[in-house]
UniProtKB/TrEMBL annotation:
GO MF entries: ATP binding; phosphorelay sensor kinase activity
Taxon lineage: Bacteria, Bacillati, Actinomycetota, Actinomycetes, Pseudonocardiales
Main location (coarse class): membrane
Membrane-topology annotation of the record: Multi-pass membrane protein
EC number assigned by the record: 2.7.13.3
Listed name of the protein: histidine kinase
GO cellular component, as recorded: plasma membrane
InterPro entries per UniProt: HATPase_C_sf, HATPase_dom, His_kinase_dom, PAS, PAS-like_dom_sf, sCache_3, Sensor-like_sf, Sig_transdc_His_kin-like_C
Gene3D superfamilies to which the protein is assigned, alphabetical: 1.10.287.130, Histidine kinase-like ATPase, C-terminal domain, PAS domain
Limits of the Histidine kinase domain: 317-531
Region spans: Disordered: 520-576
Length: 576
């Protein structure tokens, strides 16, 4: 364990990068220096070969040389004297050798070699000049050979001039040190830059090593795709920089969402406002066409610098369904409590009449109250053929009666048979009635809520009005936004979702909801209705009758005794 920790400390990311950069830099510099040295040597060889050739051409053009070569002998030593003079006068020339057509030397730096034949052929007899590095008797040299032409223009010999390689090498070594110095300076500069880059990289990666970065990446991917919440991150310009699979599902975003702005991905609305930060707050509830989302958005800052924001999304669709079931259960509980209260009052009245010995009056009272309750339930069942909707209206009447609010069903209300989207209709109607009861209970007396339900030509019309204070000025559209409410918010109870849910369901069913004043608020919902059962009517279906009667029997007992006018329809009934 100690050895492993020691190795990790000795091979930090910044150190490894610095060493790698320096190694690459040194190798590059060495290769460059070697290539430059080779190129310089080749250039010097060419320059000295051309210099030797120029000397050879000059000597070959001298009349004395041409005459001696033509004669094939130089008894006077004129050619040797000229060659030696040129060798001493011209810097770096090591030898000048004049050769006739037979390969006999007429001049040479070593006098003993004069009048001796060379070992190789006379190459300049082809009439062309030649340059090469010559391994001659005096050592390797940069050699230039020029033909000597006779009076008839034909080559009759050659002049060979050479500059020893020692001179070339000496010149080469004179040119290398400055280049080596520049290379060393460049290497030092590159090392300094590499060190700065390594420190910059260390600062950028917050001192993390490679294995730590890889581990963080793996943990991030596992966290993003392993949680049930949706996670989306944005940069300062509102572009999506990171998104997990759950967020794609909840928002319905394509796979190419990375790098795009929110306004290009989401339509204008509450969801985009919350994600962009236009609407601030925690646990914002947003309704989409498919989901009920709880959205939180938090700005991200690092060392005082704003980096963007991260948003989390929780799917509360199932939870909302459970809450609606709980609300329905609570409504049933309220209805039962109201029934218990009303039955208790009636039993006390009957008991008092019996104690007074007025049995006939007690029997009449019992008959009258039972007849009124049964009459309202039968009236609702006759007008609303769907037992679920009929039961909802009858149950809500009990709740309304307990709050001194009359629940009225218009005379022209009529729903023929089972509804195609009965569960959605129950949710829509229940929310509208609850809101209307709350509004009417806080308004002037007498308070009442009027319901109109009618199915016509494959359409269902729902209208709910109340005698409440009405809609705040300028809030005709905002009342349908999630979170909007005119009621006080109780602890641990979300408000402002009812109308938002109603509009979402209406739109999902290709319907619409409108609001008007008349004089209280009037909500009208129009829905397409392609029911599976038409023409039989609610009363002709035994199962529907049984369900409606059961709902009526379970809920109307408390509807008639909420106030002294209950028996006459003050709290519930049918209106024209």
């Amino acid at each position: 364990m100690v050895t492993e920790c020691h190795v990790r400390r000795s091979t930090k990311l910044s150190t490894r990068i610095l060493v790698s950069q320096l190694t690459i830099l040194i190798i590059t510099m060495v290769i460059g220096f070697v290539l430059y040295a080779q190129q310089t040597r080749a250039t010097l060889d060419t320059q000295y070969e051309q210099r030797a050739l120029a000397i050879a051409e000059t000597v070959a053009a001298l009349p004395q040389v041409r005459a001696a070569v033509a004669a094939g002998a130089d008894p006077s030593g004129t050619v040797q004297a000229l060659a030696e003079q040129i060798r001493h006068d011209v810097d770096a020339v090591r030898y000048v050798v004049v050769i006739d057509r037979d390969g006999i030397r007429l001049s040479h730096p070593t006098p003993a070699q004069i009048d001796k034949k060379i070992e190789e052929p006379v190459v300049a007899l082809d009439g062309h000049t030649h340059v090469r590095t010559d391994p001659g008797s005096l050592g390797d040299s940069a050699n230039g050979r020029a033909p000597v032409f006779g009076s008839d223009g034909r080559p009759i010999g050659e002049v060979s001039a050479g500059i020893l390689e020692d001179r070339v090498v000496g010149q080469w070594w004179l040119e290398l040190p400055p280049v080596a110095l520049y290379t060393a300076l460049a290497l030092c500069f590159g090392a300094a830059v590499s060190l700065l880059l390594a420190r910059r990289l260390k600062k950028t990666t917050f001192g993390l090593e490679l294995h730590e970065i890889a581990s963080l990446l793996q943990e991030r991917e596992a966290m993003l795709h392993g949680v049930r919440e949706g996670v989306v991150t944005f940069d300062q310009d509102g572009r999506v920089t990171l998104i997990n699979d759950e967020a794609r599902r909840l928002l319905g975003l394509p796979g190419s969402a990375i790098g795009q702005r929110l306004d290009a991905l989401l339509p204008d609305g509450c969801l985009r406002d919350v994600l962009s930060g236009s609407v601030e707050g925690t646990d914002q509830i947003v309704l989409t066409d498919e989901h009920c989302l709880v959205v939180n958005r938090m700005a991200v800052n690092l060392r005082g610098q704003a980096l963007g924001a991260v948003a989390t999304l929780r799917d509360r669709t199932e939870t909302e369904g459970l809450l609606r079931e709980l609300t329905s259960t609570r409504g049933l509980t309220d209805a039962l409590r109201a029934q218990q209260h009303e039955f208790a009052n009636r039993l006390h009245t009957i008991a008092g009449l019996l104690e007074l010995g007025r049995t006939d009056e007690a029997l009449d009272y019992l008959t009258d109250t039972s007849g009124i309750a049964e009459g309202f339930a039968e009236s609702v069942s006759d007008k609303i053929g769907d037992p679920m909707v009929a039961a909802l209206v009858v149950a809500k009447a009990s709740v309304a009666a307990e709050r001194d609010v009359a629940l009225l069903l218009t005379e022209d209300s009529f729903v023929d048979g089972l509804l195609a989207e009965r569960h959605a209709v129950v949710t829509i109607l229940g929310n509208l009635i609850d809101n209307a009861i709350d509004a009417a209970a806080g308004g002037p007396s007498p308070a009442h809520v009027t319901i109109r339900l009618r199915s016509e030509a494959d359409q269902l019309f729902i209208r709910v009005s109340d005698t409440g204070p009405g809609i705040p000025v300028g809030a005709d559209d905002s009342i349908f936004q999630s979170g909007f409410t005119t009621k006080p918010t109780r602890a641990n109870l979300d408000r402002g979702l009812g109308l938002a849910i109603v509009r979402r369901l209406a739109r999902r069913l290709d319907g619409q909801i409108t609001v008007s004043e008349g004089p209280g608020p009037v909500f009208t919902v129009t829905l397409p209705d392609h029911a599976s059962d038409r023409g039989s009517g609610g009363a002709s279906d035994d199962a529907a009758d049984h369900a409606a009667d059961h709902a009526a029997d379970a809920s109307t007992g408390a509807e008639l005794g909420a106030s002294p006018g209950a028996a006459s329809g003050a709290n519930l009934g049918v209106t024209r």
